[in-house]
Amino acid sequence: MKKFLLITTFCVLAGLALAHEFWLEPSQYVVRTGERVNIQVMVGEGFAGERSEGVKNRIIQYRHHTATSSTDLAPTLTNGTYGNVVVQLNTPGTHLFSFANTPKFLAMKADSFLLYLEEDGLSNVIAARKQRNEASKPSRELYQRCVKTLVQVGNKPDDTFAKPTGMPLEIMADKNPYAQRVGQPIGYQILFGDKPISGALVRYWNRNLTNELSEEKQRSDAKGRVQFLLKPGKNMVSVVHMVPASDTAQARYQPADWHSYWSSLTFGNK
């Protein structure tokens, strides 16, 4: 029994190392004024997964932004978890939903951690572990989510898509996806603490109108920017950023060597 548990734990951690996207997924990306949408917090791989039923007290931010308002969604969660919330959209325009939670601790075997770092393009962390003679040591990591989604109400997009949310890691689109046609370029800037990150591995995931998956990757430039052509269907831009764990974070949560931040931006297009 003990051997089985050890094998199972290793497989789970290896799976986490290879694919572990986290995103907000509305029941519809484009709706009419007055309609309701279900916003689900999702976790999975290949832009497909299941609802994440995290506990409500881990929420740092869960907000609904419009051109004229910003509403806290946390009080509407009544069952103690944040997996699903129903929102009625009475204001025409582009609506932005943002979600961030508290860090969680994860320890991994050295080889599993290396797979994870390679998959997410975190070559700087691989190099740092080698320099510190830690490459063969298990990892101790705090990981944290910072995710957004855009929903269009009616047929008049606005600038709400560009509102900063104050989350530590943020993906900022330079154009409203709902104001662009398929095939047009949209740029994205990766910001950590409001400063651009260069060399970050950014993914653009798409599930087209027949649910086929495609994925593109780019490294951000010196200004933290990448650019992808808009595709029809469901879209997600995602990135992972990892830094040494601060003394403050370790004291508040659990001793760790690294602190990772996971960001995604989802939106739809016909």
Sequence-ordered SSE layout with sheet pairings:
Elements lengths: L1 H17 L2 E6 L3 E2 L4 E10 L2 E4 L7 E7 L4 E3 L11 E5 L4 E9 L2 E5 L1 H10 L3 H9 L7 E15 L15 E5 L11 E8 L2 E2 L4 E7 L5 E7 L5 E5 L3 E12 L2 H6 L5 E12 L1
Parallel strand pairs: 2-10, 10-18
Antiparallel strand pairs: 1-3, 3-4, 3-7, 5-6, 5-8, 8-10, 9-10, 11-12, 12-13, 12-16, 14-15, 14-17, 17-18
Helix pairs in contact: 1-2
Unreliable stretches (pLDDT < 50, length at least 5) are: 1-19
- Oligomeric form: single chain
Strand percent estimate: over 45%
Q: How many helices?
A: 4
At CATH level 2, the architecture is: Sandwich
Largest beta sheet, briefly?
10 strands, mixed
Write the H/E string, N to C.
Answer: HEEEEEEEEEHHEEEEEEEEHE
Query: Number of DSSP strands?
Result: 18
Structural class: alpha+beta
Name of the CATH first level? Mainly Beta
* The CATH superfamily title: Immunoglobulins
Question: Mean pLDDT, nearest integer?
Answer: 92
Question: Fraction of residues in helices?
Answer: 10-25%
* Radius of gyration over all CA atoms, rounded: 19 Å
N- to C-terminal separation? 51 Å
